[in-house]
Automatic annotation (TrEMBL), chain A:
Its main location: membrane. Keywords: Cell membrane, Membrane, Transmembrane, Transmembrane helix, Transport. The keyword Transmembrane helix applies. It is found in: Cell membrane. It comes from Apilactobacillus kunkeei DSM 12361 = ATCC 700308. The chain crosses the membrane at residues 7-38, 44-65, 77-96, 102-121, 161-185, 205-223, 230-249, 255-274. It is a multi-pass membrane protein. Belongs to the 4-toluene sulfonate uptake permease (TSUP) (TC 2.A.102) family. The lineage of its organism: Bacteria, Bacillati, Bacillota, Bacilli, Lactobacillales. One of its GO terms (cellular component) is plasma membrane. InterPro entries: TM_pro_TauE-like (IPR002781), TSUP (IPR052017). This is Probable membrane transporter protein.
Automatic annotation (TrEMBL), chain B:
It comes from the Bacteria. This is Integral membrane protein. InterPro entries: DUF1634 (IPR012861). Pfam families: DUF1634.
Length: 277, 122
């Protein structure tokens, strides 16, 4: 009993660190561990991972808010798209064939992963947008953050808001319909489409994830998919891990974060394509 | 744009402070409840329920808490954790309103409405 509890807490700490740094939520780490190593039914694994996502979100956001890494306006604005997406996803269950969605989202991830590799390859070029986007100015989305790795204030502009909104809608749809943590798509929407720097993208993704997950979490809570003996030690570990992770992320060079992010994206893309074909 | 920037920054700082506080309170409360439940479970070695059963309705959870059943306390902790992000959205609406940022009051209210609708669909 006590061994399992300690093991769960340790897994939680690790998943929390990873989730907070990458903006992925930690569900991607927890679900396979619970099903493969603990032979937990997928239903309970998903239930636990949704609690994990919320814990990562709340835990890391406390630090990201204090250090002003995340972009609150971008989060609030894009949440329109993720919540509508999640709601449509829940409504379309049984109507839309998940097979095609897996293929579609798999391809989008693959495309974005290549895009990230491209960004990694041209080292010297700044990826920051210089465009004055009208909509971004109207919504006051442009902002700045202090990069602890580069030890300087970085001002950034946001562009291509319709593109970002569409990917965010897809992210919500994916989490509502396929039950997958859509953190990867959220980071992509901001980093690849809207040209936000990676660190605010990851921090903002973490913030947004809590809201998307909360909607589906109540469903899992009342239908008995959330096992207290699994979810509680995991969540406690996650809260500790996310706090540590949100400190680590800020001192890590953005390049390193990208290097960790890319293989995970390829992994998710392949497993989605595999499910589709 | 340039004249607007400092005001925006200060406004955001105040809002971030309030939201940060709400999240911290939510996390501390839910973590405390979860720790109490988990410790009770480990000390007594009993979940308070037969086999692998656990409570999933408010009624069952609260009657379980009244008799200090570990699983009931743990479920309450999880529920508080789930509510934290929703509380964050509600508090944001109020903060944007206090800063007279009506555009974002509408945006956030809209998000809350969609969220509430999806709660009922679930």
């Amino acid at each position: 009993m006590i061994e399992t509890v300690i093991l769960m807490i340790v897994i939680g700490v690790l998943a929390g660190i990873g989730g907070a740094v990458l903006g992925l939520g930690g569900g991607i780490i927890v679900t396979p561990v619970l099903t493969l190593f603990f032979h937990l039914d997928i239903k309970y694994a998903i239930g636990a991972s949704i609690v994990v996502v919320i814990a990562t979100s709340s835990g890391s956001t406390i630090a990201y808010l204090k250090d002003e890494v995340l972009n609150l306006r971008v989060a609030m604005f894009l949440e329109i798209a993720t919540t509508i997406g999640a709601l449509s996803g829940a409504l379309l269950t049984g109507i839309l064939e998940p097979k095609y969605l897996y293929i579609l989202f798999g391809l989008l991830l693959l495309f974005s992963a290549f895009n990230m590799v491209k960004k990694l390859l041209n080292k010297n070029k700044s990826n920051l947008s210089t465009k004055d986007d009208k909509l971004a100015e109207k919504l006051r989305l442009n902002s700045s953050y202090y990069d602890k790795a580069e030890k300087k204030q970085i001002d950034y502009k946001v562009e291509n808001i319709p593109g970002g909104l569409s990917v965010m809608f897809g992210a919500g749809l994916a989490s509502g319909l396929l039950g997958i943590g859509s953190g990867a798509f959220k980071v992509i929407a901001m980093d690849t489409f809207m040209k936000m720097p990676l660190k605010p993208s990851s921090a903002t993704s973490n913030l947004m994830m809590g809201v998307t997950a909360a909607a589906s979490a109540t469903v899992y809570f009342f239908n008995g998919s959330i096992l207290p003996q699994v979810a509680v030690p995991l969540a406690l570990g996650i809260l500790v891990g996310a706090t540590i992770g949100s400190r680590i992320m800020q001192v890590l060079p953005a390049r390193w974060i990208r290097i960790i992010f890319v293989p995970i994206m390829f992994y998710i893309a392949c497993s989605m394509l595999y499910k589709g074909f | 744009m340039n004249t607007q920037q400092p005001a925006t920054k200060e406004e955001m700082n105040r809002i971030e402070l309030v939201i940060g506080k709400i999240l911290r309170v939510g996390v501390v409360i839910s973590a405390t409840i979860m720790i109490i439940g988990l410790l009770l479970l480990l000390i007594t070695g009993k979940s308070g329920y037969a086999h692998d059963a656990f409570p999933t309705t408010f009624k069952a959870i609260f009657s379980g808490i009244a008799t200090l059943k570990p699983y009931a306390i743990m479920m309450l902790g999880i529920f508080c954790l789930i509510l934290t992000p929703v509380l964050r959205v509600i508090v944001s609406i109020y903060s944007f309103y206090k800063e007279k940022d009506m555009l974002y009051v509408w945006i956030t209210t809209f998000v809350l409405i969609v969220l509430i609708i999806s709660f009922f669909f679930g």
